[in-house]
Write a structure and sequence with these properties.
alpha/beta, Rossmann fold, 7 strands, AB_hydrolase_fold
Length: about 260
């Protein structure tokens, strides 16, 4: 992982931020700005979606990458803030390396597996992306309502276009690599009771990527979880409603025992 893939700001107890598919570490810029006054905030761009690595990865690889980032920063215990696939990875990390986590934040994420129908739908769209050709305008347009809520699409088209421009600059294989890391993951709902660290679930009411009912299912099974519903946002809630996310994060970490 290159230095440019990692942003490390502030001092104090550490929060590590892991982003979702089609995104990068900058999706957490509002949270870094808000929390680095009292906490060490570390955000990184996942290798799963970085085409120069060129290999298919799985969630265990993403867990290893996250721990490599923490180890490289000299951080033993941290709060993991995982968005979408970053949350999928965070659940694996919590189950397999519980001693490394002081807390877990699941943003726009879920614990159940994709259904056979969902896997087929994703495969039809994404399997052809295993190429160095740039992401097409058609593909980018199809994912706008998956990533952004209706309010953002209508009221802030410039913000949406900023991400579309980023997507169009990426090779298609980078998206394929991300997709392959999570499409066949195991259902973890039944094992959520094993996660004993404090957990915060943040989910937008208009999430077009992961319906909010899937987040509610996690909350019902996580023994020490708090659930925050965010109106007026889609999947990319950290940017669409940063104030609500920042408030929830700060309240959560300030209420934790020192780590």
């Amino acid at each position: 992982m290159q230095d440019s893939d990692i942003l490390d700001r502030g001092a104090g107890p550490a929060l590590v931020f892991s982003h979702g598919t089609l995104l990068d570490r900058t999706m957490f810029d509002p949270q870094i700005a808000a929390l680095s006054d009292r906490y060490r905030t570390i955000a990184y761009t996942s290798r799963a979606g970085t085409s120069r690595y060129g290999t298919e990865r799985c969630l265990d690889d993403l867990v290893s990458d996250c721990l490599d980032v923490a180890d490289g920063a000299g951080v033993e215990r941290f709060v993991l803030v995982g968005m979408s696939v970053g949350g999928f990875m965070g659940i694996e990390l919590a189950l397999k390396h519980p001693h490394r986590l002081a807390g877990l934040v699941l943003v726009s994420s879920m614990a159940d597996a994709y259904t056979a129908e969902e896997r087929a739908q994703f495969g039809e769209l994404l399997e052809p992306m295993n190429t160095e050709e740039p992401i097409s305008a058609e593909f980018a347009a199809a994912f706008v309502p998956v990533i952004f809520g209706p309010r953002t699409i209508e009221e802030n088209p410039a913000h949406v276009q900023r991400w579309v421009t980023k997507w169009r600059a990426r090779p298609s294989r980078s998206v394929w690599g991300e997709y392959r890391s999570w499409i066949d993951r195991e259902d973890r709902l039944a094992r959520l009771g094993e996660i004993t660290v404090p957990t915060l679930i943040i989910h937008a009411e208009d999430d077009g990527g992961i319906p909010i009912a899937r987040a509610e299912a996690m909350h019902a099974r996580l023994p020490h979880s708090t659930f925050v519903r965010v109106p007026g946002s889609g999947h990319l809630v950290t940017e669409e409603q940063p104030g609500a996310v920042n408030q929830a994060l700060r309240h959560f970490v300030e209420g934790m025992a020192p780590w």
